[in-house]
Amino acid sequence: MNLPKGGIAFFDSGAGGLTVLSSCLRYFPKGVFYYYGDNARAPYGNRTEDEIYRFVKQAFDIFLSLKAQAVVIACNTATAVAVEKLRKEYSFPIVGAEPYVLPTACKGGKIFILSTRATYESVRYKKLCARAREKERETEILPFSCDGLAGAIEAHFPALDFCLSEYLPRGKPTAVVLGCTHYIFLKKRIEEFYGCPCYDGNDGIARRLCSLLIKKEEPQGKNRDGQPLSRVFWEGRPLAPVCVYKSKQKAKKRRIFAQKLRFFRIFFLGSGKTKNVKIYKQMFVSIKN
Question: What is the pTM of this model?
Answer without folding.
Answer: 0.83
